[in-house]
C-alpha cells in the first residue's frame, strides 16, 4: 500500500516528512536541512541545533580546501628547465625535470630554462686608439649555467651582461687602431672582448656561460664612409699584391734554385775538364821531353809546324804570287768573312778533341809551308783531321 493512500496505518494522508497539511504542496527545504544537519552533527559529537549546522559547513569547507590545496601543489618541470624552489621567500633547493609537489602558499617554484641559447647584441659609436669614431656591433651567445645565481646574484642577469658587454667592447675598441677594427684586427678584437667580458662578469657570479662572441663588421661614420671605403680598397689591393708576390716567389724560387744547382754542376765539370786538360798537356810535354833530348832540332821543327798549322788553320788565308804579274786581283771578302767565322767555330770544337800530334783545321784554300827556303810540306787545309 502506498504511503499516501487512505488508511495507511491509521495515518491518513501523511507524508514521510510528517506533514499533516491536507494540501499536497512541496516539502519545506529548511526543515529538511535542519534534520540532516542534526543527524550529521550528532555524528561529529554535536548536540544539534544551529551551531551544528555551522560546524558541519566549516568542516566541509575545510576538507574541500585541503583537497584543493593538496592537488594544487603538484607541478611539472620541463626537460630543458630547472626548478628553483623558494620557501617563505628564501632559496630552498633546485629540482630536476619531472613531476614534483610542494606545499602551496609555503613554497614557490620558479622554472628557469638552462638549455636554450640566448642572444645579446651590443652596438654603438666608439672612439678608437687613434681618435677615430667607428660604429661597432657585437653579438653574444650565452645560456644559464646556474639557475640560483642567475635569479638572485644580481637584480637582472641579462641586463647586467648587456652592460658588461658594452663596457668590454668600448675598452677593447678604445685600445685598438681604426684600421685594425675595420679590417685585419677583427679577430683580435673579438678575442680580447670575450676575455674582457669574462673578466668583468666573473666576480658577480651571474650564473651565465658565454658560448660564443661574434664581432660583426664595423663601419665608419656615414660622413666619411667614402674615404674609408677607398682606404679599405687600397689595403685589400696591398694584400692582393703581397699574395701575388708570394705566389710568384713560390713559382720562381724552385727554378732559380735549379739554375743555381746547374751552374754549380757546370762549374765543377769545367773545373774537372780544365784540370784534366792541364794534366794532359803536362803528360804531353813529359812524353815529348825524351824525344827532344834525343833530337832537339827535329822536335823543335815539328812543334813549330804543328803550332803554325794550328794558328793558320783557324784563319782565312789568300796566297798570292806577286812575281810576274801586276794585274789587279779580286778578293772575295764576303767569303773570307764567312770562312773566318766557320773556321773559328770549327777550331773551337776541334781543340777539345785533338791529339798532341794532330789538330783540326778548317779552311778552303791551299797553302805551302817552307822552312829555310826548303819546301817541307804541302797540305790542303780543310775541315776535319789530316
UniProtKB/TrEMBL annotation:
It is found in: Membrane. It is a single-pass membrane protein. Residues 1-28, 344-386 are annotated as: Disordered. Keywords: Hydrolase, Membrane, Protease, Transmembrane, Transmembrane helix. SMART domains: PHB. GO terms for molecular function: peptidase activity. GO terms for cellular component: membrane. GO terms for biological process: proteolysis. Residues 361-377 have a biased composition (Polar residues). Residues 72-232 form the Band domain. Residues 344-355 have a biased composition (Low complexity). InterPro entries: Band7/mec-2_domain (IPR050710), Band_7 (IPR001107), Band_7/SPFH_dom_sf (IPR036013), HflK (IPR010201), Membrane_HflK_N (IPR020980). The chain crosses the membrane at residues 56-77. NCBIfam families: hflK. HflC and HflK may interact to form a multimeric complex. Belongs to the band 7/mec-2 family. HflK subfamily. HflC and HflK could encode or regulate a protease. This is Protein HflK. It comes from Motilimonas pumila. The lineage of its organism: Bacteria, Pseudomonadati, Pseudomonadota, Gammaproteobacteria, Alteromonadales. The gene is hflK.
Amino acid at each position: 500500500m502506498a504511503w499516501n493512500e487512505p488508511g495507511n496505518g491509521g495515518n491518513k494522508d501523511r507524508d514521510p516528512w510528517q506533514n499533516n497539511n491536507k494540501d499536497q504542496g512541496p516539502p519545506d527545504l529548511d526543515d529538511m536541512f535542519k534534520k540532516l544537519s542534526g543527524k550529521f552533527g550528532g555524528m561529529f559529537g554535536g548536540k544539534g541545533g544551529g551551531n551544528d549546522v555551522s560546524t558541519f559547513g566549516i568542516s566541509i569547507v575545510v576538507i574541500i580546501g585541503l583537497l584543493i590545496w593538496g592537488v594544487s601543489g603538484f607541478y611539472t618541470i620541463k626537460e630543458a628547465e630547472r626548478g628553483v624552489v623558494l620557501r617563505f621567500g628564501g632559496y630552498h633547493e633546485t629540482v630536476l625535470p619531472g613531476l614534483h609537489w610542494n606545499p602551496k602558499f609555503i613554497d614557490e617554484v620558479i622554472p628557469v630554462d638552462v638549455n636554450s641559447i640566448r642572444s645579446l647584441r651590443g652596438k654603438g659609436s666608439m672612439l678608437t686608439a687613434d681618435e677615430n669614431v667607428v660604429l661597432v656591433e657585437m653579438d653574444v651567445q650565452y645560456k644559464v649555467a646556474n639557475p640560483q645565481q642567475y635569479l638572485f646574484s644580481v637584480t637582472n642577469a641579462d641586463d647586467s651582461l648587456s652592460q658588461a658587454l658594452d663596457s668590454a667592447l668600448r675598452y677593447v675598441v678604445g685600445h685598438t687602431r681604426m684600421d685594425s677594427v675595420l679590417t685585419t684586427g677583427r679577430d683580435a678584437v673579438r678575442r680580447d672582448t670575450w676575455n674582457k667580458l669574462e673578466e668583468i662578469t666573473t666576480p658577480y657570479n651571474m650564473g651565465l656561460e658565454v658560448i660564443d662572441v661574434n664581432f660583426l663588421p664595423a663601419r665608419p661614420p656615414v660622413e666619411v664612409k667614402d674615404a674609408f671605403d677607398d682606404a679599405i680598397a687600397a689595403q685589400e689591393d696591398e694584400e692582393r699584391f703581397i699574395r701575388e708576390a708570394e705566389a710568384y716567389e713560390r713559382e720562381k724560387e724552385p727554378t732559380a734554385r735549379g739554375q743555381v744547382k746547374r751552374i754549380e754542376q757546370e762549374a765543377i765539370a769545367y773545373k774537372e775538364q780544365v784540370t784534366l786538360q792541364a794534366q794532359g798537356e803536362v803528360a804531353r810535354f813529359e812524353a815529348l821531353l825524351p824525344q827532344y833530348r834525343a833530337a832537339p832540332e827535329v822536335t823543335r821543327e815539328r812543334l813549330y809546324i804543328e803550332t803554325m798549322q794550328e794558328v793558320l788553320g783557324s784563319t782565312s788565308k789568300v796566297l798570292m804570287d806577286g812575281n810576274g804579274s801586276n794585274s789587279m786581283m779580286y778578293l772575295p771578302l764576303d767569303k773570307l768573312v764567312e770562312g773566318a767565322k766557320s773556321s773559328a767555330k770549327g777550331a773551337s770544337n776541334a781543340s777539345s778533341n785533338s791529339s798532341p800530334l794532330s789538330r783540326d783545321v778548317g779552311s778552303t784554300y791551299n797553302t805551302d809551308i817552307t822552312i829555310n827556303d826548303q819546301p817541307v810540306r804541302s797540305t790542303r787545309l780543310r775541315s776535319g783531321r789530316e
